[in-house]
Design brief:
Layout lengths: L1 E3 L6 H13 L8 H4 L6 E7 L4 E7 L4 E6 L2 E2 L12 E4 L5 H4 L2 H15 L3 H15 L6 H37 L5 E6 L6 H10 L1 H7 L10 E6 L2 E2 H4 L2 H25 L12 E5 L7 H16 L4 E5 L7 H4 L3 E5 L2 E4 L1
Parallel strand pairs: 1-11, 1-12, 6-10, 10-11
Antiparallel strand pairs: 2-3, 3-4, 4-5, 7-8, 8-9, 12-13
Helix pairs in contact: 5-6, 6-7, 6-10
Length: about 325
C-alpha cells in the first residue's frame, strides 16, 4: 500500500508501529516513552502474519513492557523477536555510510539476531561481560573467558554474513546505478577465534584496567563500505553514500527472505517474506535511480514481500510502486484514496 499525506501527520508512525514487534523497539532508535502519544499512558501494538500473532504493550507509568506471541506471554523479549520481519528504507539510512562503526555494528546485530541461532544469547553474554571486565577484581580472567567465548561467536557470525553477502551488495549497488567498484568487508582488531581473542584480551589487560575500558573485541569492529579500496563514507559522493545504504538494506531484506525460506533463526517464528517499508525514500533520489529502486522493490514484492510506501506527494513515486493500493492520511486518520 502507498500512504500519501503531508509531513507530520503520522505516515512514519504507522511504519514504526508495523515493525515495532520485530525486535520491540523503534527502527528510528527512539525510547519507548518517546513513542507514547501525548496525553496517553502507554501504547499497544498487535501484528498478525501468516503464521504468528505478536502483541506488544508498554505502560509509561511503570515502564513495563509486555509481549505475547499467539496469546502466550513471552518470558524474555529475545524469545519473541522475529515473529514479524521487515526492512525500512529511508533517507536517514545514509548514516550507515557516513556514521561511525557503531551504526554498522548495530545494523549487523539486529539483522543477525533475527537470522542466526544463538546470536541474541551471545550478544547478551558479551555485553554483560564487557560491563564487568574493567570493574572486576580477582575474577577478571573469568570475565575475559566469557568475553572470548561469546565475542568469538559474534565475530564469526558477522564475518560469515559479510563474506556471504558482499557479492550481492555489489550487485545491488550496480543495479541502483553505481558505476564504480564497491565492496563490503568486515574488519576486526582481533582474530575471530576464541583462543586468539582471549590472548588479545590478556595482552591488553593492564592498559585496559588502568583506563577502565576494553580495547579489543567485536565491540570495536566495523563493517566497511568501500569504494574501490577507500572508505565510501569519506570519499564517496552524496549519491554514492545513499546508494550504498539502500543496497545494504536490500541485502538485509534478501537475508531475511532466505532464512524464512529455510526456517526461522533464533527469533519467534517465520512469517513469510519480509515486509518492505519505504519511508519517503524516493524524495532524494534522481529519476533514474528512483526508477531502478522501484524495479528492485517490484521484484521483492513478486517474491512475496508486502510493500508499504509513504510519500507526501504521489508524483514522487516511480512507476512500479504506483500500482500499489493508495491511502491518504491526515492527522493520524487513514482513509482510502
Amino acid at each position: 500500500m502507498v500512504l500519501v499525506g503531508p509531513n507530520g501527520h503520522g505516515k512514519t508512525s504507522l511504519l514504526e508501529a508495523a515493525l515495532y514487534p520485530e525486535v520491540f523497539r523503534s527502527f528510528r532508535g527512539g525510547r519507548d516513552r518517546e513513542l507514547v502519544r501525548f496525553g496517553e499512558d502507554g501504547f499497544r501494538v498487535e501484528v498478525a502474519t501468516d503464521g504468528t500473532a505478536v502483541a506488544a504493550g508498554f505502560d509509561a507509568r511503570t515502564g513495563e513492557k509486555r509481549v505475547t506471541v499467539d496469546g502466550l506471554q513471552a518470558e524474555r523479549l529475545s524469545d519473541a523477536i522475529g515473529g514479524v520481519r521487515g526492512v525500512v528504507l529511508s533517507p536517514s539510512d545514509v548514516e550507515l555510510a557516513t556514521g561511525g562503526a557503531r551504526v554498522r555494528r548495530g545494523f549487523m546485530d539486529v539483522l543477525l539476531s533475527l537470522v542466526e541461532s544463538g546470536y541474541v544469547e551471545a550478544l547478551r553474554e558479551y555485553r554483560r561481560a564487557l560491563r564487568h571486565r574493567c570493574h572486576a577484581r580477582g575474577d577478571v580472567e573469568d570475565w575475559e573467558s566469557l568475553l572470548a567465548r561469546s565475542g568469538s561467536a559474534l565475530a564469526v557470525a558477522r564475518r560469515r554474513w559479510a563474506e556471504r553477502w558482499a557479492p550481492r551488495y555489489r550487485e545491488y549497488c550496480a543495479q541502483i546505478g553505481e558505476r564504480l567498484e564497491t565492496g563490503l568487508r568486515y574488519t576486526s582488531r582481533a582474530a575471530d577465534g576464541e583462543a586468539e581473542l582471549a590472548a588479545a584480551l590478556a595482552r591488553s589487560r593492564s592498559r585496559d584496567l588502568a583506563r577502565g575500558t576494553t580495547s579489543v573485541g567485536p565491540h570495536r569492529d566495523d563493517l566497511q563500505l568501500l569504494l574501490g579500496e577507500r572508505a565510501l563514507g569519506v570519499y564517496g559522493s552524496a549519491v554514492q553514500r545513499r546508494t550504498a545504504a539502500l543496497a545494504l538494506r536490500l541485502v538485509a531484506a534478501e537475508t531475511l527472505a532466505e532464512v524464512d525460506g529455510r526456517g526461522a533463526g533464533s527469533g519467534g517464528g517465520g512469517g513469510g517474506a519480509p515486509v518492505i517499508c519505504l519511508d519517503d525514500v524516493f524524495a532524494e533520489l534522481d529519476a533514474e535511480r528512483s526508477a531502478r529502486l522501484g524495479a528492485l522493490i517490484e521484484g521483492l514484492a513478486a517474491r512475496g514481500s508486502q510493500v508499504f510506501a509513504t510519500v507526501p506527494r504521489e508524483g514522487e513515486l516511480p512507476r512500479p510502486v504506483r500500482a500499489l493500493p493508495r491511502w491518504r492520511i491526515s492527522d493520524g486518520a487513514i482513509e482510502a484514496a
